[in-house]
Design goal:
87% of the residues lie in helices and 0% in strands. By secondary structure, the protein is mainly alpha-helical. The protein is elongated and about 75 Å long.
């Protein structure tokens, strides 16, 4: 329930256009930046899983087109185009989620560092400083993995788009039959992206587990 409420409230940041208002509202409800970061990381993990599944589904539609023998190319093209459009939408949602993760993480670490000097006990202050450093280290691994994932989206989407446009202009068996080698190349790029997604998901799991409750 708590996770659901947090995710539902993420849109508030977009609606208000002001992070101060966003954080203030959540703090009044008992949720700190740490809670919001955890929720966003959980969300980015799910978004990455959905992107992986969607890109694989789009690839399967391409393979189905080039595997047709006298089938209905027009109908198969429409299915492929639909999968491509969903891939674009999923990728955009992932980009937006990554941006939210980066923003909340930056705000959390800035607040945490600023509050260290407010701790009068030297021992507690040092422990908090060490915890901040460890959290930032884990986050940097996650951030790097997310950056690799995000960088891998556009090249694959471009390959998908190339196929969509070519097939739109050349929807005949002869043209389709001459591009089977393209499928293997695209499949390799999708496989690389899926590997990056899986690594990023592992980093998200590690980061979530390391966050204090």
């Amino acid at each position: 329930m708590r996770s659901t409420i947090l995710r539902a409230g993420i849109a508030l940041l977009v609606l208000t256009g002001c992070s101060t208002v966003y954080y203030s509202v959540w703090e009044k409800l008992g949720y700190e930046k740490r809670d919001l970061l955890r929720s966003n990381v959980e969300g980015v993990r799910e978004d990455q899983e959905e992107v992986g599944e969607q890109f694989e589904s789009t690839l399967e539609e391409i393979k189905a087109i080039y595997g047709l023998e006298g089938g209905d190319l027009e109908k198969q093209y429409d299915r492929f185009k639909g999968e491509y459009d969903r891939s674009v939408a999923k990728a955009e949602a992932l980009r937006e989620r990554i941006a939210k993760v980066e923003e909340v993480a930056s705000d959390l670490f800035t607040e945490w560092a600023g509050e260290l000097e407010m701790i009068s006990d030297p021992g507690l202050r040092q422990r908090s400083r060490e915890q901040l450093a460890a959290t930032k280290t884990r986050y940097q691994r996650l951030s790097s993995a997310l950056a690799r994932t995000e960088a891998g989206l556009d090249p694959v989407l471009q390959r998908f788009q190339d196929q969509v446009l070519f097939l739109k202009h050349n929807l005949n068996a002869q043209a389709v039959g001459g591009l089977e080698s393209e499928v293997r190349s695209i499949e390799s790029e999708v496989d690389d992206l899926i590997a990056d997604l899986r690594d990023s998901i592992r980093q998200a799991d590690d980061f979530i587990q390391g966050l204090p409750e």
